Amino acid sequence: MASNHRNGDSHIHHLPKKPKLSSTSLITPSEIQSEFCHHDPSVARINNGSFGSCPDSVIKAQQVLQLEFLRQPDHFYFNCLKEGILRSRTVIKQLINARHVDEVSIVDNATTAAAIVLQRTAWAFAEGRFEKGDVAIMLHYAYGAVKKSVEAYVTRAGGCVIEVQMPFPVNTNDEIIHEFRKALERGKENGRKIRLAVIDHITSMPCVVIPVKELVKICREEGVDQVFVDAAHAIGCTDVDMQDIGADFYTSNLHKWFFCPPSIAFLYSRSSPKCLDLHHPVVSHEYGSGLAVESAWIGTRDYSAQLVVPKALDFVNRFEGGIEGIKKRNHDKAVEMGQMLAKAWGTNLGCPPEMCASMIMVGLPASLAISSDSDTLKLRAHLRENFGVEVPIYYRAPKDGEVGVITGYARISYQVYNTFEDYTKFRDAVNKLVSEGFTCNLLSN
Ligand SMILES: Cc1ncc(COP(=O)(O)O)c(C=O)c1O
C-alpha cells in the first residue's frame, strides 16, 4: 500500500471511475431468482437484517479479485488495491452525500467502527481532556456489542453512561424524543458535561427507525460534544444523507442491505477539527496517515469485499429506481407482510409503518407463552428446524399489572429475493403451533 513499507512504488495511473447511477435494462424476476440461487431453498429467509445477502454477480466479481491477488499478490498490492478502495469510497461518498471522500473510511463492520470512535473517547479521558464522571448517552436498545464497547472504552475510562429508556411498542417519534430529552437532562445534572451521544439509526431489537436528524439537532442545542450514529442497517434500507443528518460520526454496513459480501462498512467522520484523531485499532505502517488510509491497510488479509462496492451498485441499478426504488418497495412489502401476519394471528405491529424501513416487528400470539430471552432463542430454533423458517424474535417483558399481553415480537425483513410464500410459511407454522396448544414451556433447554 504505502511505498515506504513494501519496497516498491505504488503505480496509480487511473482516477476512480465515476459511479454509474442509472441502468438501461431492468432485472427480471427469473434473473433475481438466479442471483440468489445459492440460498437454501428449504428455508424461508425472512431475516435479511442479521447477515444481509449477496447476489451471484457480486460473489463472482469478488472471487475474480481474490484470484487476482493470489495470482500475483505484489502486483495486486502495489497497483490495484489502493486504487480499488478509493473507487469504493468514492461510490459511498456519493451515495451518502458526504462533502469529501476523505470523510469516508472503509472498515470491516459496524462493530469495528464503534471501537474506532469509542477508543478516541477513552483517549480523551486518559489524556485529561475529559474528566471522570463526564457523560455518554446511548439508547437502551443500542446493539449489544456496541453497549459492550461503551463499557470497555467509556465506563472503564471513568465515564458515566446514561441509557435512554425507549417505549415499545412505540407509536410516534415524539415518544422517543421525549425520552431522549429526559436522558439529556439527567446527563447534565450537577453541571456534568455530555461528551458523546451514541444513537442508533435503526435499532436492532426491537427494530424501529429512530428520528436521528431531530436527535442530532437536539444534541447540538443542548451542547453535547459529539454524536456517533450507529446505522448498521441503514444504507440500502432508509435515507442516509450525511449533510442532512449532521452527525459527527456515522457508520453503516454495506453487507446488510447493500448487497456486498461480508464484511464491509463505512465510517463517516465529518471534516472538522473536532473530528480528528480517529485511528484504526489495528495499527499498521499507515498509522498517522488519516483514518481512511490507515483502514485501507491493516495487515495482510482479504480485502476483496471492500473492492466490490461498484459491482454491488451495478446490481442495484438493474432495479427500477435503483436503491431508492428497492428501499421503497422493500418497505411497502415489509409493512404489507407484517399487517398480513398480525391480522392472521390477531396481534399488532411494534410501530406504525412510517417508523419502520425494510424490517418490522410483528406480535406473536400470547398463547405461545414466550416468557424469557431464552424462550425466543428456543422458539427461533424450533421454527428453523421444524418449519424451515428463519426469523429473529424479541422478548418484551410484561410491565407491572399487564396480563395476557403480547410478549414476543418477530422481526421480519423484506429484501428483493423474498416471496409471499416465505411469509405464509411463517404464518402457517405459527397457526399450527397455536392450534396444537404449543407453549414455549414444551421446548427443552
Ligand atoms: C444496530 C446495530 N449495530 C451494530 C451491529 C453490528 O454489526 P456487525 O456485526 O456487522 O459489526 C448490528 C448488527 O446487526 C446492529 O444491528
From TrEMBL:
Residue segments, region Disordered: 1-23
Residue spans of biased composition, Basic and acidic residues class: 1-12
Keyword Cytoplasm: no
Pfam families per UniProt: Aminotran_5
Record's keyword terms, sorted: Pyridoxal phosphate
Domain Aminotransferase class V residues, every copy: 86-363
Keyword DNA-binding among UniProt keywords: no
Transmembrane intervals: none
Highest taxon of the lineage: Eukaryota
Entry-linked PANTHER family: HERCYNYLCYSTEINE SULFOXIDE LYASE (PTHR43092:SF2), L-CYSTEINE DESULFHYDRASE (PTHR43092)
Entry protein name: Aminotransferase class V domain-containing protein
